[in-house]
Each structure stands twice: as structure tokens, then as C-alpha cells.
């Protein structure tokens, strides 16, 4: 949380004091500026940290993705139960995905598919918040719990450590597309400062990062980038500020360099942008006419959302949630029959591009991708060519993070309606994610962590096959 210029002051560095120039918010540590933090870290050395050099990206399929048409097609079941569009073979012998996921299927050896995740909740808002919180007693989204322990901002780049990327974060023209951001940014009993950073809208974190933009919002990145470029040029020309100590210089470089670069998606090679791009998955006009809210479910921004997630991770944001809406497929416009042919291929393209991009950059072991939603869908296809709410099974897949991949965890009955044997709980999902992000033994030794949070982390075990 930063502020380069106080209201009413000159926009150039000549009219701003060093203190105003380098003032950064709490960073989760009361009153400590970014320059102070760099200095303290240099003096203290590395020490034992509760944090691991890891990150998480959650691809949240909002509305309740069908577990059958995604990762458990169950083609041995009768036609009214099995995947409507069939299956596709994966790189794991004997394992298939729904037919709309051929690119992810080719990367299945880098994934762990969980077919037995159950929480039993069939209400959208309640289930969505529960899944994103991993059932932890604070009720806060896992990224907010992470920020409570890691600090709200990175000491390396100054960016928030926890962010949510909805379509509106990609640009003004995408703000009309749907996203239930409140369902993935719940803070429960935590202070509001730990809510996920949402660059598509206002809010406390955005307001605390003002750089005197015309509309006081980071969502207008064109103004943000222009302003930061001006600050950098003024800083380079000013002898007084250029002579400040190395920690202040480092802090300014973080603010003026790290923040703006993270949002410059168009700096990427065009070939890579095209690899991610889901702009071709537009909803046909005849489907749009069936329901008023259908146009907002288009996944045209999803590829760029995933690309921005990768760029934020590289800028030391450690927990990123990407939203994809439209998965409430009851039927009569965006049932399984007309929704899956659009949303499925968009997820397939964006998620596979993300995994291949991580591999190319040597980040596969650092970044854990989690694909999930609030619940699954009924095993039997209804009369409207859709499926209804089903809390007994929930879509869940992991990829990367240095965890054991190339496996399917759990199995379902002949209709893909219930799990057989092993059941994965939300607490185990929490345990898997936090074992990836935190040094759990070190947390057990710390006495300065709120007891409720410490218990939620240390009492939760990861999914056994992912240890």
C-alpha cells in the first residue's frame, strides 16, 4: 500500500519531500516503510521464515462446474448420466477428461485430478465462500489468511501479496463480463486490510495505493503507467533524490518499476499473447437472446486473466485468484449442451497455456495451480439439457507446485454421483495449499501468530497423495 504524492502537492519530484515520495503503507507491519523493511532485512539476514518461496493461482469456475464434463466423464454410465460430449484420452494411461479439454489432457502427467472432493453444500454463496476459505474457522479466503501471515504487500516489489483477477482487471471493455468477486474475497473475522487486491474496482487497498490518478483507481492502468513513467523520469533527473541512501533508492525502484511492469500484458511476445488468448470464444447471438445475463458469461477475457496472473506471480504476488463465470449450467441457455462448448475450450486453452508458460520459465515447481468451483452438478442430466447443484462432489484439480503429479485421487460410483472410499475434505485442500506456501514446523514454533489461524494451518493435513 503506497502513496507517492499527497493530495494538492506538485506532481514532480522537485515539489515532494523524500518522506512523501517513499511513503509506503503498513505492509502488514505497523508503520514500517518499504525502505525501512529493506534495511531491516539486510541487518537481520534470512533467518528462519514461516514462508516458502512458493505461490498459488486458483482458477475459480464460478457457478458450480460440472465434475462429469470436466475431469470425470464416466462413459460407462447410461447416456443420461455420462458426459454429454464424450471424453478425450490423457497422457496418463487409462485416464480420460471431458472432450473439451484436449490440451489439458495432453498435460495430465503434470496434474493431479481429485474425483472425491466433497463438502455437501448446495448453496452458491455459502459453498463458494467455504471452498475459498478451505473451511477455516476465520471464514477468510485462503489468500487473505496468507496475507495475514506474510504481510499485505511484497517486500520485494511492493505489490499486494493477495489479488483477485476478474475480467474487469484486464481493461475497461471487459468490465461488462460477469464475476462474483465478493464470493472469492471474503475476509471473515480478519481486518479489511487483508481483503484481496482487486485492480478492477475501488476498495481500501486500491485507495491506499493512489498515485494521484485522475479517477483515483488503479483499474485505469493507462493513467497509472503514464504517471509512473513521469515519476521515474523526474526521479532520474533530480540530484537530491538520486543521492538518497541505497535502501530508499531500492524502495523507489520497487514502486516505480515493479508495479507498472506487472500490468503491461502487451509487453509479452505476440506469439505468447495469442497462445493464451480466448477472445474467439464468443457466445453466439441466438444463445444470447435466450437469457438477459448470458452475454456476461463470455470467457473472452480468461486467457489474458491467466497471463496477468503469471505476471503478478513473477512480481511477487503469492496468491492470485482468477474468476471464470457462467458455470451454473441448469439449462435453457447455458446448460451443458450450449455452455460447455464455450467455457470448456476457453479453460482448456488458458490453463494449458499457463502451465506451459510456467514450465518454459522454470516456475512449475514454485507455482501451484488449483482449478475448482463451489460445487459439482447432478449426475443425471435434467430435462433442460443441464445439470443442477450437487454438493456431494466438487470439481478439483491441481497442477505443478513440485507436488506428486500424474495421478487421479479417489473414484466415484457408476453414475459419478458419490465418491467410493476416500473422500477429500475442504480442510485437506487447505492443508495441501498451505503446506505448499508455509513452513509448517516453523509456524508451530511461533508465538506471535493468532491462535485461530495457527490452529487452522497446523491442524489441517494435506491430501495424502500430494505429500
Task: Describe the protein in words.
The chain is an alpha/beta fold. The chain has 2 domains: 1-47 and 213-262, no CATH class; 50-199 and 263-466, Alkaline Phosphatase, subunit A. It contains 17 helices and 13 strands. It has helices spanning 18-21, 34-44, 67-71, 102-106, 124-133, 142-150, 204-207, 221-237, 239-242, 246-262, 270-276, 285-288, 302-314, 336-360, 426-437, 440-445, 451-458, and strands spanning 55-61, 87-89, 96-98, 111-114, 162-165, 319-324, 367-373, 376-377, 389-390, 396-400, 407-409, 411-412, 419-420. It has a 7-stranded mixed beta sheet. Strands 2-3 form a two-stranded antiparallel sheet. It has a two-stranded antiparallel ribbon with strand order 8-9. Helix 2 (34-44) crosses helix 10 (246-262) and helix 13 runs parallel beside helix 14 (336-360). The longest helix is centred in the last third of the chain and has 25 residues, at 336-360. It is globular and about 55 Å long. The two termini are 35 Å apart. Residues 1-32, 42-46, 202-222 and 240-244 have low confidence and may be disordered.
Strand order of the largest sheet: 5-6-1-7-10-4-11
How much of the polypeptide forms β-strand, as a percent range?
Answer: 5-15%
Q: Which range best describes the helical content: under 10%, 10-25%, 25-40%, 40-55%, 55-70% or over 70%?
A: 25-40%
Under CATH, the topology of the largest domain is which? Alkaline Phosphatase, subunit A
CATH architecture heading of the largest domain: 3-Layer(aba) Sandwich
Largest sheet properties = 7 strands, mixed
Structure summary, number of beta strands: 13
Q: Roughly how many Å apart are the termini? A: 35 Å
Structural class call reads alpha/beta
Low-pLDDT segments: 1-32, 42-46, 202-222, 240-244
Helix and strand element order: HHEHEEHEHHEHHHHHHHEHEEEEEEEHHH
What is the 3D form?
A: globular
Q: Supply the number of structural domains.
A: 2
Mean pLDDT across every amino acid position: 84
- The tally of helices reads 17
Radius of gyration using CA atoms only: 23 Å
